[in-house]
Every structure is written in structure tokens, then in C-alpha cells.
Write a structure and sequence with these properties.
AB_hydrolase_fold, disordered C terminus, Rossmann fold, transmembrane helix, 2 domains, about 40% helix, 16 helices, hydrolase activity, alpha/beta, single chain
């Protein structure tokens, strides 16, 4: 009888979680469509835009020093999207408009950290995405992907470095990209170094994994395989079918990023679909997707090869929406936590690693992983900790850490859930502007290797 009650609760929780995620996904998609239709109507009938004969000349004459600024690249997290996807909807809630030199790449929303890092390089530098021969053979997908004819920053090199801002898994993508640059891992680009990156800022960055992966369906035994009945299994089935149907306009609007696995109905047919659904092929069978990288074990595997570089500046914003009452960790608010995350905040705060399973690292303690933001544990976001702790410094007031020192992970803890500073600007209120203004000001005024950059409309020193 007790077993039946436990199973009933499990299926009820699975149903509720699936329903909430599905509703939220539909809300985002429908909001994007509604926004695009509204803009199209206004442009067509109410406020037609004046014709600009030469847009490039207009841009360069109004802001003469624009192209002397290093770009700030905003990198989205899991289920995220870049500029051009979901129409006019902004993943970073319009923060990219705060600076004249911002890029928002569109990377695979569910692809592995490795594949996204490779895509990010070619998005910036230009050329055909090369996932690497050895990696592609090991995980059973095409070696080459999308082609960027020119690249969005082809002059990128050590003399023209880049500021990166990553949300959630996007922060780990940037770290791996920097390591690849240091390792000269891009064929035909043997001159790369870690100094192509001048700064990395993370918003709720997942540096050490998250216990939510186990709640959603990853097995704590290995951090690679999935439980047979779980939210992630439902996600897996939905993604496979979405990619197999392969409706061009729909995938142009939103793409999970698995095109290099060739899961389209035109390439694999009905038997290939059945093989994928049974778990015999595709990214979920090989493990070359984002969730295995977000487990504690997967993050430790990644971190084992990632360095903190002495000439790079690091700053992290850590989100937290829990507090302790009589020694028990509970959600800090009912109304300020998004419905998508409230149940998970409570579950993560009470997470206990299975007693019959070996802990993910020596010295693991459940209590260290209780504070969270509904998606990530607070301990994961501060700085790389496992298997080796990197130099770090806790910041209360940002004015206390100026000037910044390179090679140190500065981190500041703020109250908020995992999506406080993305998609919906109104939720964060004034904090939205305070956070992003601080990020852009830091990149433009306080972080540089040689001379301070000349900002638009400012005279040269």
C-alpha cells in the first residue's frame, strides 16, 4: 500500500511538472508570435518605416568609434535562443539594447557544452562549424554544421578580444570555448590563445552541476543515463518527434540544435525514428546533449580540463531564493518565485543523495547543496569548485572590488530565481537595470588589458 502511494505521488508530481513546463513553453512561443504579428501590423499599416538608403553608412557616421569597442557577447542557457529565433522576443529581455556593440548568438538550446562552444567560435570568427572529427565519430553525428559566411566578428584575435556574458549553461560554454582557444583546438586557426577572451561574466552560471538534473530524471549513479519514467524522458520524446517532423518554418522559428544528428524524416525515415525513440541512436543515446553536462559528475568531468586564466577577468552573479527557518532550508517567498520553479525550489532544498550510491566527490554533503534558485544550487554558481577550487572572492558591494584583479572569480549573491534576469524584464524591476548596467559599465570602463577603450562620442585621451 505504501508503495502504491509513493508511485501515485511520483506520477502526480510528474504530471504537474510536465503541465507547468508545457504551459510556460506555449506561453513563450505564443508571446513571440503575438509580438511579431503586432509589430508587422504596426509597420505595415500604422507607422511604416522611412527608407534608409545606406544603413551601413548611417551607423558608422552616427557612432564613429563603434567598431573600436570590443563586442559584448551574450550567451543563452538551456532551452534558450539567440537573436533571430522566436521573432522579436529577446532571451535577455532587451538588455542587448543597453550597448551599441552587443552580439546575441543563437546556439543549440539542448546540445552539449562542447557542441555549443564550437558553434560559438564559428558564429564569431566565420566559416563552417566543425565539431571535431574525433568528437563527431565518438558521438555519431556529422562533423560539420551550419555555415557562417563572414562571421559576426571576423577580426577576433588577441588584439581584438571579446567580453562574454553567459546565463546558466552559457557560462560553462564560454569557459570551454576559452580552453579550446588556449589549446588551439580549431583546425585552420592555430594562432588562438586564451587571451582572445578579456572577461567572463556569468548570470546564474552552472559551474559545478545541479541536483535538479536528478529530480528531472538523470540517474545519480552515473550522471549520464535517464530514469525510465521522468520529465526528461517526456522531453526526449518531444524533441525527437519535433526534429523528425522537420517543418522548415517552425524550426526556423525555434530549433533545439540537433541538425547535425540528421534526425529529419527525410534522412532517417520511419525506422530511424523508431530507433531514436527506443534509445538506440541520436543525441540522447550517445549522451551528447546538455543534461549530462549539468549533473555534478558531468561538471566535474568538464572542470577537470578547464583552467582559470591569469589575464582574464571573472565576475559572477549568484541567484538564490531560499532561506533557513529553524535550521530548515525553505523557499524564501511564495509570490516572487516563478511558478515554473517553486516546486523545484522546495524539492532541491530537501534533496538527499541516495545512501546506496557513491557520492559524486569526496567530502560531498547534502546540506551544502540545499540553497538554490529553482534550477541551480547556490554552491554551483559562485565559482568553479570541483574537482579543484579556483581563486575566488565574495563581493557584497561592487564598489569594494574596483579595480578588479584578473584570474579571480568575484561573485555576488542576489535574491532571485533562475530566470529573474531573462525573458521578462518586468519581473526583475529596477534590479534588471542595476545588474546589466553594472555589467556593461564594467566591460567598458574597468576591464581592459592595455589602454582604456574610447567610448562613442568621447574624445581620445
Amino acid at each position: 500500500m505504501i508503495r502504491l502511494w509513493i508511485d501515485a505521488l511520483h506520477f502526480t508530481e510528474l504530471f504537474l511538472s510536465s503541465f507547468v513546463h508545457l504551459v510556460y513553453g506555449f506561453y513563450i512561443f505564443s508571446s513571440a508570435v503575438a509580438g511579431d504579428l503586432s509589430q508587422a501590423f504596426h509597420r505595415r499599416f500604422l507607422f511604416p518605416s522611412p527608407k534608409v538608403e545606406n544603413k551601413q553608412d548611417f551607423a558608422t557616421t552616427t557612432i564613429p568609434n563603434l567598431h573600436t569597442l570590443p563586442p559584448i557577447v551574450l550567451v543563452h542557457g538551456i532551452f534558450g535562443f539567440g537573436q533571430g529565433r522566436l521573432g522579436g522576443l529577446s532571451y535577455f529581455a532587451g538588455a542587448e539594447k543597453k550597448d551599441d556593440r552587443v552580439l546575441v548568438p543563437d546556439l543549440g538550446s539542448l546540445t552539449s557544452v562542447h557542441d555549443r562552444a564550437r558553434e560559438l567560435f564559428y558564429y564569431l570568427k566565420g566559416g563552417r562549424v566543425d565539431y571535431g572529427e574525433e568528437h563527431s565519430k565518438a558521438y555519431g553525428h556529422s562533423q560539420f554544421g551550419r555555415v557562417y559566411e563572414l562571421g559576426h566578428y571576423p577580426e577576433w584575435d588577441e588584439d581584438h578580444p571579446i567580453h562574454f556574458v553567459g546565463h546558466s549553461a552559457g557560462a560553462q560554454v564560454v569557459r570551454l570555448l576559452q580552453q579550446m582557444l588556449a589549446d588551439k583546438a580549431f583546425k585552420g586557426h592555430e594562432n588562438t590563445t586564451e587571451n582572445w577572451v578579456i572577461s567572463i561574466t556569468s548570470l546564474s552560471g552552472v559551474f559545478n552541476g545541479t541536483t535538479r538534473t536528478y529530480l528531472d530524471g538523470m540517474q545519480p549513479e552515473d550522471g549520464r543515463s535517464m530514469k525510465p519514467i521522468s520529465l526528461l524522458q517526456l522531453c526526449r520524446l518531444g524533441v525527437i518527434i519535433y526534429d523528425w517532423i522537420d517543418i522548415p518554418w517552425l524550426k526556423a522559428y525555434y530549433n533545439f540544435g540537433f541538425d547535425h544528428f540528421n534526425m529529419s524524416r527525410k534522412k532517417m525515415g520511419i525506422w530511424g525514428l523508431l530507433d531514436c525513440l527506443k534509445g538506440n541512436s541520436g543525441p540522447f543515446a550517445s549522451g551528447d546533449w546538455i543534461l549530462p553536462d549539468l549533473t555534478i559528475q558531468g561538471s566535474i568531468r568538464l572542470n577537470s580540463d578547464l583552467q582559470t586564466f591569469p589575464d582574464t577577468y571573472y565576475f559572477n552573479y549568484v541567484t538564490k531564493c531560499t532561506r533557513k527557518i529553524l535550521g530548515v532550508t525553505v523557499p524564501s517567498s511564495i509570490f516572487r518565485i516563478h511558478p515554473l520553479f517553486f516546486i523545484r525550489v522546495l524539492q532541491m532544498s530537501q534533496w538527499r543523495h541516495p545512501s546506496d550510491v557513491a557520492p559524486p566527490y569526496k567530502g560531498y554533503r547534502d546540506e551544502d547543496w540545499q540553497d538554490n534558485d529553482g534550477a541551480l544550487n547556490t554552491i554551483s554558481m559562485t565559482h568553479p569548485r570541483f574537482p579543484v577550487e579556483h581563486p575566488n572572492r565574495h563581493v557584497v558591494d561592487e564598489s569594494d572590488c574596483k579595480p578588479l584583479e584578473p584570474g579571480i572569480w568575484y561573485y555576488k549573491v542576489i535574491e532571485g530565481d533562475h530566470i529573474m534576469f531573462i525573458v521578462n524584464r518586468e519581473r526583475a524591476g529596477v534590479q534588471f537595470d542595476l545588474i546589466y548596467d553594472a555589467i556593461f559599465e564594467r566591460c567598458r570602463k574597468h576591464v581592459f588589458r592595455k589602454n582604456p577603450p574610447t567610448l562613442p562620442n568621447q574624445p581620445h585621451p
